[in-house]
Amino acid sequence: MQQLEFKKSKLATSVSLVLGLLSALPVIAEEAPAVDGDIEVIQVTGVRGSQAKAMELKRQSAGVVDAISAEDIGKFPDTNLAESLQRITGVSIDRVNGEGSKVTVRGFGPDFNLVLLNNRTMPTAQVAGESTRSFEFANLASDAVSSVEIYKTGKADISSGGIGSTINIRTARPFDTRDLVASVGVKAHHDTSVEDGSSVTPEISGIFSNTFMDDSLGLGLTASYQKRDSNTKRATIDGWRQNIDGELNPNAVVVNENQNPYGNTFYARNIGFASQDTERERTNAQLVFQYAPSDDIEMTLDYTYSKLSDVSNADTWGLWFSGPGNATNAHINENGTFDYVTEVGGDYSGTMQQNASDNINKSLGFNIKWQASDNLTLSFDAHDSNATAEGTLGDNADNKFFILGALNIADKTYDATSTEIPLLGANYGTLNPNGEPHLLPEHYASLFAGVRAGRNETDVNQYQFDGQWVNENNDALSSIDFGVSFTSMETHAQGSYTGPISAGWYGNMGLWKDDVSYVGLGSDFLSDFSGGGSDMLIPYYYTYDQQAAMDKAQQLYDVEYVSAPWQDDHLIKEDTTAAYIQINIDSEFNNMPLNIVAGLRYEQTDVTASSMQQEAQQLVWLNPTEWQTVYADDFSYSHESHDYKEFLPNLDINLEMVENVIARFSYSRTITRPTLASMRATTALTPIPKVGSRTGFAGNPSLKPFSSQNIDLSLEYYYDDASYVSVGYFNKEVENFLMNTIETVEYDHLRDPYIGAAAEQARAELIANNETPSDEAVFQWLIDNGYGDANGRVPQSGSDPVAEWNISKPNNVEDLNINGFEFAWQHWFWDTGFGFAANYTLVDGDTEYDVERVDEQFALPGLSDSANFSVFYENYGVQARLAYNWRDTFLSGMGQAEAGGPAPQFTEAYGQLDMSVSYQLTDNLSIFAEGINILGEEKRVYGRYEEQMLLAQQNAARYSIGARYSF
C-alpha cells in the first residue's frame, strides 16, 4: 500500500485577509444585537448593557447556559478567547507561555468540550504528528467574535461531542445591525519578560460592515494582526523514575526513611533549566456576504481564516542523573522519594533549540434561511473547514537541537529536601585543578543533535438541515424543532525524529571552545521560587550560536540536519449522521409560568483508521546516556473499522416560582468521542528506549464514546437590570472512560545490552575494585573491551537478554461520578457606575488519584475548584475593571516522560490579577490601558509529592496601551 497522501483542501478560495475586531465588535453590540429565538432584544451600551444581554440570554434559555458578549470580551485585557472565557462560572483554563490555551468546564478538560463556530463543528490540529479534538483557543483573538455561548446541558438541536460543555463562538453579521459600522483599533503591547526581541509589539484591528440595496445586501469584513515577543524561564525534571532502587550501587551510602505502604521509590531524571525567547504572530480575518432577495429568504456566505505562527529559540542546560547505579550518596524520605542524591560522572550540558510552527485554520460556509410559511421556518447550512499544523524549519521540521557538554565532571548532586526547585550542584574535580569557580570553554565537547518533524491536517465537511414549526393555536405546545445533519471528519497526522545524530563527532573536545560564551545568571533568575535566584549553586551556563555549531559539524563530518522519513503516519476518518426532534411547551403550573423543552437526538458514527507499521529491528546503546531503536526501512499500513449508534434525550423544565425567580431542572445524555491519538491502528515503540523508559503505545480504533447521564438543578434570582444571583447543582454519571492498561511485552529479536553478560561483567569488576558501576564506566568498559562498533556505539547482540517493553493501550473500563455546585452573583450599585461579578465552582467526584500506588489507575485530569471576582466602574466616559481568576491545585496530566510507568502531574493552585481602563475622549475616539498577570504569578507542576518538581516557570506581567476610532 502506498504512503498515504494528504487530503487536498476543498476550499474554493483562500482569501488572505486578517480577522479581528478590537474596537468595532462592541459597536455592533451597542447598535442592535442579534436575536436568538424568543430572547428579548436589549439595547446594549457599555459594560452594563453587555452584561444585561448575557444575563437575559441565561434567563431566557432552556437548560443551563452562560454567555459573554462582545463588550465584555473587548473590555477584558485578554490575549485570546480562552482568557475571556475563564471569567464564566465553571470555566478554567490551561496556559502555555503564560497565555490561555485550552479550557476546562466543570472539571472536564479540553477533550471533553465541543467547540462550534457559528454552530459549526470546527477542526483543530497540532504539530509533532499528533491529532487532537482539543480546540486551541490561542488561534483566536478575543476581539474577533461578537459573543460566546456555553451550553452546560445537552440539547437535541446542538451537535454532540461535549460532556463538559458545548461552546458556540458567534461572529458578527451585517444584518445584525443593517447600518454602517466602521472602526479601527491599535495597541502597543509591552511584555516585561522580553530579553531578546521587541519590548513593544503592535496589534491592529478593524471592521467594516454595511448593507446596501434597501438592506437586501450586506458586506462585512473584520481583520486583526497581533505580534508578541516574550521570554520564558523555567526549571524542569523529565520524570521521577519508579522502583529502580534495585540497581543501587552497593558501595553507596544511603539513609532510607521510606514509609510508603507499598515500598515504592522515586528517582529524578535530568534536572535542567531553560531560557526561551518566543515570537508569536496571530492573524485573523473574516469576510461575510449576506443577501435577502425577499422578506422570506436570507442567504449568508462567509470565509474565516486564522494563522498562528510560533518561532522560538531556547537555551537549556543542566545535569543528567542516570540512576542509582551511579549514586554514591542518597537520602530516601518518608514518601519514598530520593530527595538527595550524589552521582559520579556526567556532563554539564547546554542545548540550543530552534522551534517553529504554523497553525492555519480556514472555513468556507454557506447558510440559507427560508420562511416557508407563517409557522414554518427552514434552514440549510454547509461548511468546508480545514486545520493544518506543520513545522516551518524546512522539510516540516518543527524542532532542531544541538548539544555541547562539559564531559567527565567528578560528581553532581541534587537536593530536593527543602526547596521548590531542587538545588543542583557539581564537583568539577580534575577539570579545574586550579580551583576555578566555573567550567571553561575548553571543557566543552560535542554530544549530539537531532531533528523532529511533524504535520497534522484535519478536514471537516458538515451539512445541516433544520426546521421549526410554530403552533399558531393558543395551547401549551408552542413549537417543534427538527433536523438532520451529516458530518465527515478526516485527520491525518505524520511525525518523525532522526534520533541522536553524532556521525563520529561525539565527545570531540576543544573544537567548540571558540564558539561558546559564559552567561551568568542574575539573582532574579527563577527568584519567585526557593531554590532559584540567589539559592542556585551553579549560577551560570554556556551558550553558543546553534546554527554556527551545526554548520561546523556539517562541514567537518558531512552531517545532514534534515527530517527523517515519516515514522508515524496515521489516518482516521469519522462519518456521523444525525437526526433530532425537539418539542417546546409554554404553559403554567399553579399560575407560575412553565417552560418545557423535550428532545431526542439520534447519531450513527462510522470510523475507519489506518496507520503506518514499521518493525523495530534492534536496540543500540549510543553513548552513556542515549539509546536508539533502529527501524526497518520497509513499512505497511493497517486498516481497521468500527461503528456505533447513540440515542441522546434531553428534558429542560423552567418554572418562574415568583416574579424574577426561576427554578430549573435539566436531564440530558451527552457523549464525547474518544481522543484521536487513542484510536490509532498500530503499535509503536519509542524511538528513544532509555533504560527505565522502554515504552510503547497500542491504539484502539474500536473504542466506545464516553457517555454521561446529566442532571442539573438551578435557582436564579434576577432582581435588577444586569443584576442577579444564582446557585446550581450538577451531577454527571459518566460511562466508558478510557484507562490505559499497561502490559509488559517482549519481542524475541529486540535484545538489551544494558543487562547483557558483558555489561554485568563490567559492573562486577568495577564493584570489586571499589569503583562506582556508573553507566559511563560500564559503557567505556564495553568500548575498551571490543563490544562497540566502528562508530563507538554498543549494539545489541544475540546473547543479550530480551528487552522488556511497557505497552500502553486504551480501553473503555471506567465509570465515574462528577458533581458540584456553581455560585454566581452579579450586581450593579444603582446608578453609581460601580459593580462587581463573582462566581465560584466547587467540583467533586470519585476520581481521586492514589499517589502512593504505581500501578495504572484512572483519574480525571482537570478536576478542580475555580473562582472569579471582578469589580468595575462605568461612568462619565470612564470604564475600569479589576479581575482576579483563581484555580485550585489539580491533576493536570497522566504520564511523565522518564517515569518508566504510570505517573501523575499536578499543577499547583494559580491566581492571576488583570486590569483594564478606558476613557471616551470623543463620541468616536477612546483610549485605553490594560495589564495582564500584573502580580507575575508563577506556575509549578510536580509529580506524586510536592518535592517531585516537574516544572517551575516564572511568568511576567504584560501591559498594553491603545486607541480605537469609530467612523
Supply database-style keywords.
967 residues; mainly beta; 30-stranded mixed β-sheet; five-stranded mixed β-sheet; 7 helices; 47 strands; globular; disordered N terminus
Q: How far from one another are the termini?
A: 60 Å
- Structural class by helix and strand composition: mainly beta
Work out the strand percent.
Answer: over 45%
What is the overall shape? globular
Average residue-wise pLDDT: 87
Describe this structure in words.
The chain is mainly beta. Helix content is 7%, strand content 54%. It has seven helices and 47 strands. The chain has a 30-stranded mixed beta sheet that branches. The longest helix is centred in the first third of the chain and has 15 residues, at 46-60. The N and C termini lie far apart (60 Å).
Task: Give a brief description.
The chain is mainly β. The protein has seven helices and 47 strands.
Furnish the topology, listing elements before pairings.
Blueprint: H1 24-31, H2 46-60, E1 65-69, H3 70-75, H4 81-85, E2 91-96, E3 99-105, E4 113-117, E5 120-121, E6 147-151, E7 165-170, E8 181-191, E9 200-212, E10 217-242, E11 253-256, E12 266-294, E13 297-319, E14 327-332, E15 338-344, E16 348-373, E17 376-391, E18 397-406, E19 411-415, E20 423-427, E21 444-470, E22 477-497, E23 516-520, E24 540-544, H5 546-557, E25 568-589, E26 592-613, E27 616-623, E28 626-631, E29 636-637, E30 640-658, E31 661-672, E32 683-685, E33 695-698, E34 706-720, E35 723-751, H6 757-768, H7 775-784, E36 794-795, E37 802-828, E38 834-845, E39 866-875, E40 878-887, E41 890-894, E42 904-907, E43 910-920, E44 925-932, E45 939-942, E46 949-954, E47 958-966
Parallel strand pairs: 4-7, 11-14, 33-37
Antiparallel strand pairs: 1-6, 2-3, 4-5, 6-7, 8-9, 8-47, 9-10, 10-12, 10-46, 12-13, 13-16, 14-15, 15-19, 16-17, 16-18, 17-21, 18-21, 19-20, 21-22, 22-25, 23-24, 25-26, 26-29, 26-30, 27-28, 27-36, 30-31, 31-34, 32-33, 34-35, 35-37, 37-38, 38-39, 39-40, 40-43, 41-42, 42-45, 43-44, 44-47, 45-46
